[in-house]
Each structure stands twice: as C-alpha cells, then as structure tokens.
Fold these 3 entries.
Entry 1:
Amino acid sequence: MESPIPILIGVETEYGIHVERSEGEGEPDVVADSIALVRCASEPGVWMVWDYSAEDPHRDARGFHVDQLRQDTDEAAYVDQDARRELSYVEVKSDLALSNGGRFYNDHAHPEFCTPECATPGELAQQDRAGEWLVRNCARTLGGKLGRPVRIYKNNTDFQGHSYGCHENYLLPRALPWEKLARAMQAFLVTRQIYAGAGKFGWEAEDRFLESHFQISQRADFFSELQSVDTMQRRPLINTRDEPHANPSLYRRFHVILGDANMSPFATRLKVGATALVLEAAARAPDLDWPVLEHPLEAVRSISRDPDFAWKVRCERNRFASALEVQSWYLEMAGRWCNTAESWKTALMSDWAQVMKDLAEDPFRCRHRLDWPAKLHWIRRFQRDEGLSDSDPWLRSLDLQYHLLDPAEGLFAALESSGEMEAGEPDEASARALRSPPAITRAAVRGKLIEKFPARVLAAQWDHVLLEGKAGVVRVDLTDLFAPDDISRYLQRIEAARAVDDLRGLDD
C-alpha cells in the first residue's frame, strides 16, 4: 500500500443565540448580541487582525470566477445595516485569532467558532468540543453583565425556514480532478445523514415552517442545487467554492455545507472521519464506479423524512436500493483503498461498520452514540408520557433544548452526564485544547506565533501571519507548510526567537 494521503480537517460552526428579554423591550438586535458575546472571550489570542483581503468566495472549482453570488445582496444589506452602527466593519466582526490556531468571530447574527486544521477526526472532535466550551463560557459572562439569561444553541434551524451552517473543510491534493471528486462524493454526502443527522421535529422550506413531523437531518430541507458556489441561498449538495487557503497549484479545499452540527462527539468524529477516508479513496482511485443517485435532490429529503427508516434510494443501473447499501459500499471502498497503517483509521472503520450493522437491525441501538436516534427516543418517550400530539409545539421546544449548551438545562448535556450518551472530553480537556493547537499541522505554527508575539501580530489568515518587526514587516508563509519535519523546524525557530526580526528567512 502506498503512503497515506494526509487530509487536514476543519469545521466552522455557527451558533444560535437568544438573550432573554421581557415584553415591551422591542425587537432584539441579534447582531449586537452576537458581537457582545464574542467580545466576552478571555482566551489567549489576538483581536481584530483577521486578513479579509485574502478571501475570495467567488472563485469556482469548475474553473471560472463568478461576478456575483446570490447571497451578495444579503451581504450588501448586512453591510448597510452595520454601517449605521458606531462600529467599523472590523469591529462588527470582532475576530479573535486564537492561540490554538483557530478563529472565533461574529458572522452576521451568529457567533462562529472555526477549529484549527486537524490531522485526525479525534483531534477535530476535541477542538469542536473546545469551541462549545468557549461559547458557553462567553454566554455565562455576557449573561452576568446583562443580568439576564443568554442561551446558546448548537443547531441549524429556527423552525421558521432559516438555516445556519456547520461547514466542514478537507484539504487534499489538487491532483484529484474536480469532476471526479464531485462524482465520488455526491451519493456519499446525500446518504451520510443516516448516521450524521442531528434530527429535527419539523419539516421546513426556505422562509417557512411546513409540517410537524420528525426527520433525521436538520439541514436536508434547505438544498435545491446539485453544484454551486453559493452557500446561503439555493444551497448546493456539492459546494464549488475554490478557496484553498494553501498553494492553489497543489491543494484544494473541499468545502462541505451539506451537514448538521452534531452534539455527540462520536457522531462528529464518525462524520468527518468517514468523509476523510472516502476522500482518500477517491484520491487513490478516482475512476472507481462510484454510486450515482438518479434523483439526488429528492433523495436528500426523502431519506431524511422517511418515517420507517428504510431510506430507499434509486441508483443508476439499480445498483443499490437504500442509503444503508450505498454507505456500506463506501465503507468497503475505504477499507480497500485507504492506507490503514494509522490507528485512527482502523478504529474509525470499525465504528462505521458497527453503526451500519446497528442501523440495519434497529436504529435505536445507536441512541447512545448518534444524535437523531437519541433525540427521537427521548422526546417520543416524553410525548407518550404527556399524551402530546405530533403537532404540539412542546416537541420543537424539546428539540431546541437538546442543542442548548447549558449543563443545567440542555437535554444532550443531561443525557451525557447520566451516561445515556457516550461522553466527550471533560471541560478541563476543552480548556487545554483552546491553548494547544494540533501538534503536527500548520495550526501549531500559527498558534505559536500568536502566543509568543501577540502584540506584534499585524494580520492573520489560514495561510499566513504578518508580524511587526523593528526592521519592517515579517511575513510567515504557511501556504506550503504541511510536512511534519518542516512544521517542527518552524516551531523550533519560533521557540528560539527573542524578537520578531529573528524570524526573517524562516521560509528559506
């Protein structure tokens, strides 16, 4: 077997925020609430130095540059609204570049935490959990200042047809052509929800609530295109944004927007780990006979809304009849084509296989590990005990409570503390993770620069850091920094540096 293909993983999570107010106080300013919450962060980092000039969401992986996105109108409206505030654009964003190599900022009306680049799904789940800890602490601090409860939800909907994202990022070799990458991943992402869905008591469409039924995914209602560079309107199954934040001739970033925010760390690890393995298989064997769904846009909703959990699909040439069969085929291909010398891969495939078996026999066998079976089991039990109908709004209230990041009130938190859900990292480990970037990715270099020279950081981005030296600006280029030996060499130089100017020539 050839050497493993390193694939870096990151997740961006937008959180829902609610500041309790009494009647008569007028409409809440959710943007102001989100800004105030982000600014409550006390973790080590550098404020308001994020380099937006390096971002271009209009570049399309299919080989062209679009003049305008559908969401540009929304973005312009946000900018117009924000111009009336007594804050600059940068102050509205309130970016905090963290010493773990991650990012925390206000994304319109949502606090957003971006994990640093991680080398394994286990690292990613740990960093995702650290983000929850950070946001929860900020809510507690803001609540203390305001003298009223501030609630944070790690979910993807407001039950009124508005969805916010949990986007995944996978950095992989550009040698895998886009057309073959997209073909390999479409059926996988559409069917992945059977274990990665967070569950929802409601069916929605854009800007409206439809009906009171359960479905296994929070986001399945909001996709209407096969491929597109847009992310906020007419969302696509395959997002074509071509913004690698790395050497564009060698790398591409596969930006996945078809996915839920998971409360269960097991589900988070399985979701990103299985995706990384399928990407590695696609990079090794791009011409495999990948499954092709006949109607993928219909399938993403029909799978999610199937009350019998049969998850039937129609594939070309009648190859597969269900989402379970499609996922089992991807699991087999991962085992055949991925280098499994790394221990996390064998563990991940074992968990993936067990989940497939349990879902086939009885989905509720997964209720201690996966979000949607856990949510459905406990809320249905409450519904029976209270004699509630499916349309009772109490069910949606309990759905929200599952995602509430409050150990005293959150339903997932209660299930975890009682042993009903597989536990994630304790708070102490999350606090450490916010100060400890993944050791063998370039996030360690970014984080070390922020930790050691916070007052000298002029700008930060995923692929570079600019620092103020006595003899001028020092640019630390992270564009091609992926080899562990090079990362180690950078870290030794930064550790030994007594001043920013000692870092000149670091890239040589």
Entry 2:
Amino acid sequence: MTATPPQTTVQTFTPTMLITWALLASLPLWIEKVGLYQYLGVEILIWATYALAFNLVLGHAGLPSFGHGAFFGIGAYAFGLAQFNIAANLWVCLLAALLAAALAGAVVALFISHRRGIYFSLMTIAFGQVFWFIAMKAHAITGGEDGLLKIARLPMDIGVAAFSTESNVALYYAVFAVFVAVSLGLWRLVHSPFGRVVKAIKQNEERARFVGYDVWAAKFATIVISAALSGLAGGLFAMAQRSAFPDVMSLHYSGYIVMMTLVGGGLVSYWGPVIGVVVFLLARDLIGAWTTSWMLWFGLLFVILVMFRPDGIAGFLESLRRKEPPAPAPVPASDAKGA
C-alpha cells in the first residue's frame, strides 16, 4: 500500500514569482545603463534555469549531487550534434538536449537512487568524471578538448512566424521564455503530491519509506527530471556560446552550481538559486575587473555564509522580513524578589 501525501492549496502565481519575472523581463532595458552588458543577462537566465533544476535535487530532495555539470554538458553537446546531424531547428535541438541529459540522468539514477549521504555524493562525482572523460576522449564525436564549434543561434519558429536569436537581446527573450516555463513547471512540481513526497524523503528517508512511499522511484524521477532540465539549460548555453566544450562537465563547474545554490539560499527558498546566480556572475564581472583572483573573494564569501548564514542570502532576507522586536531583558532574580 502506498501512502498519499496530504493535499494543500498553493498559488500558481505568487507575488514573488511575478515580480521576479517582471524584473527579468525589463532587464535588457536598463542593464547597460548601470554599466553592465546584454550578454550577462543571457548568462544569468541560463544559469538560473540550471540552478533551479539542480536545486530540485539538492534543496528540495536533500540529495547532494556534485556531478551535475555532466548533464549540463551533455545537453550542450546534444544541442550541437543535433544541429549538425539531424536538423537545424531550435525545438528539435532543445528536445535533443533535454532527452540526452534525461537518458544520462536515468542511467546514473539507476545506480545511485538506492544510495544516500556521502556514498551518493561520491558516486555523482564519479559519474561526472566518467562523462567528462568520455567528452575529452571521444574526439570524433565531441571534438575532444576543442569541443564543438560553429554552433548557430537558431531562429525561434512558432509556426506563423520565426524570430531571429542572433542578437543578444533577441536571444535573451528566447531564453527568458524557457526560464518562465521551467520556473513555473518546477514550482508546480515541488508543490504537487510528488513534491511533498520528495520533501518527506529530504526530512527522513527511512520514515518516508516506512509510511509507504516508494523512495527509490521518487529519487529516480527527481534525478531524471533535474538532469533533463539541466541539459535543456546546457543546450541554451551552447547556442549562446556558439560552442560546446568539455570544461562545463568538469568537477569545478559542478562546484559552481553548488556554490550558487547555497550562497543564494536554495535550501530554504525556491528563488534562492536565482539570487545565487546573480551574485556569482556579478562577483565574477565586478570583482574580476579589479583582480583576477575574484574566486578567492567569492570563496571567502561562501565560507562566511556557510559559517554564519547557512540558509544563504534568501534566508537572511527572510529573517529581516520576519524580524520581531527584541524581547525585554530578563529581570534578575534578586530584583524580582525585592519587588
């Protein structure tokens, strides 16, 4: 007998969601006025899509994956290979990126869904390195260390019209459409009965299994969905960069997405990973303009946050919003007796 999670009503569109979308939709109008550049907006949306997908595993299911860069990279390669060998169509290439990453995620999930804790983490690292090694050595398919070059920015064909994505602004709005769809879909997923099972697994896997949830199947599905959406983001990344290269599958790139998610507060907030992506990319550009060792300073920020605010920036902002007036100082026992 399988347990059924309790039903609760959750808004499809929340004020935070609408404000986030509105802010991002207007970004091309003001980003250059504050001294930044249009392509940074494209990067933010792609990495934010990737971070939300990754956080389904880390933040919502409590599964510490350190090899997610493999799925991002597989999506990038699949996008390029589909464009060169199947059809130069945006939807076909994005579908190829999503399916290829989902397939890779399913293979990995078969081996790691019954693991947890440090063993789960180590196996994600191992599989990530396996995919990275294949990308480096399968030169005839992936281009080896050089990667796949000359990937085109394909037009967005919606049947009645086709929109070019050659300019950074046009590409931004194409990626924005994908970001809105992914963020809304994941929002509904994490607040669905399936999402509540995933959260139960995060709180106590043994208890979730004891009350009748199919823990293995839920973990398998979570990993596959997260991998597929990470691959979708990878496909967009390949189109934006006009190339796919093995570095994005390496261990340090997998570490980036972990840092973004934790710094932003992905463990306590749905939108935390988006905050983390913005902070990370701004730190890269703003601190990087001052010193080449910007990662040293971002690493120090990461250490400080983990030590003093493990719930990240989103957790800090939430604590400010809910801040209550300080409680009155306790009266000393001697004064109380005197009174």
Entry 3:
Amino acid sequence: MRLYAVVVAGGFRRFATYRLATVAGVFTNTVFGFIIAHTYIALWDERPHLGGYDVSQAVTYVWVGQALLVTVALMGGGFEDELIERIRTGDIAVDLYRPADLQLFWLSGDLGRAAFHILGRGVVPMACGALAFDLALPGSALTWGAFLLAVLLGVVVSFALRFLVALSAFWLMDGAGVSHVSWLTGMFFSGMLLPLNVFPGVLGEVARALPWSSLLQLPADVLLGMYTGWELAGVYAFQAGWAVALLGAGRVLQRLATRRVVVQGG
C-alpha cells in the first residue's frame, strides 16, 4: 500500500506544478459560475422551488458544480488521455511489467489529481460564489465531512468509467471518439447542465439511477442537506455499488485486453 500512497502524493504534486493553468482554470470556473448562477436565478424566479430547490439552494448547486467540474473530471483531462496514448504507442507493455496493479496504479494517481483540484480549482470559485450570492452552505462540520466522502466516492466512480473508456483503445487504437462521447454523456447525466431533480418523469428516474449521478448530483444534495441518516447511508451505498461494479468491469476488460498485447522479443 505504501507504493500506492506514494503515487497518490505524486499525482498531487504533478498537478500542483501547473500553476498558471490552475489560475486560468479558477478564473474560467468563476466566470462561468457567475453566468450560470444568474441564469438559474432567472429560471427559479419563473419556477420557484423547481426540482425541490429554492433559489439559494439552486445557486449553491451551481457553485458546487464549478468546484467539482475538474475534480471529478467531467470534461476529461485526467489520466485517461495518457493511458490511451500509452496503449496506442505500446508503452503499456512497460506498465504491465511493473510490480504494481495497473488499475490501482492509475486510480492512485487520479486520486492525487482530484485532491489537488478540489483545493486548487474548487475552493476559490466556491468562495467567490459565497461572497457574491446568498448560498445555502451548511454550518455543520459533519455535513462538510459527509460531502467530502460523497465526493471521494464520486471520484472513484468517475475513474472507473474513464478506465473503461481508456481500455477501449486496445481495440480502437484511438480512444478520442469514445472519450468525447463519454464526457458529453457525463455532462448531461451528472446534473452539470441542470440538476437531475429537474428532469421530468422517466428521464429523471433513469438519469438518477445511472452512475454519473454519483459525480455531482448526489454530492451536491449531500452538501445541501437533502440526505441524513439512513438516506445518507443509501447514497453512499449507491455510489459504492456503482464503484465496485465498474471497477470489476474494468478488471474483466483489462484481462481481456491484455491478452491482445504482444511484446516483440519478450
């Protein structure tokens, strides 16, 4: 486990070196936060309590979304591009020879990336939102802790989805198309465009049952105090269930994929 802890720390330090990119990202998230927040305010003025949120909760949802956009890699930008490239070039053979589990190695690096991004890209936009708007932020440290646990599980679900996407390169050689379809699907079904509670009828029920709801919708609702007690335990069980299922699917697909690897001279 010490190896993977070192990889987590390395992932954090690696992304911490991109200071200008982080500043630019914070600026972008903050600007989009203001634009979307005012759009939500106009929408909620016309439809009060839409999706079960009041205006303050809806605006808080916007800023949580901006804080988590990069943390859960809703638009990509995580490890998957590098893994796809290593599969395409054949460098994946080196990874398979390492005395480390391939999936755990990349998961560790991605957890380090997410830890940096929630601090580097999440805190400042949220603070700007709190200064400019009346946000429904919790006063209890327990609620913040529950939120961070939901975010952690969301990051693992996100990793598991992107790991499956990256492994598609073993068959397609170029996973760019699958990656784009994946992050477009994630943007829609995570609740980034609109809270899933706003979706009507069967579409809403299906969207809330899919794994992408673990990335933003559920952590945001936990922060807003929508779940307590056994309902909160149910949220964690839902996220953990999807994480286990998707990581298991990744294991199976990895085993099938590596059968295709031929190392010349080895």
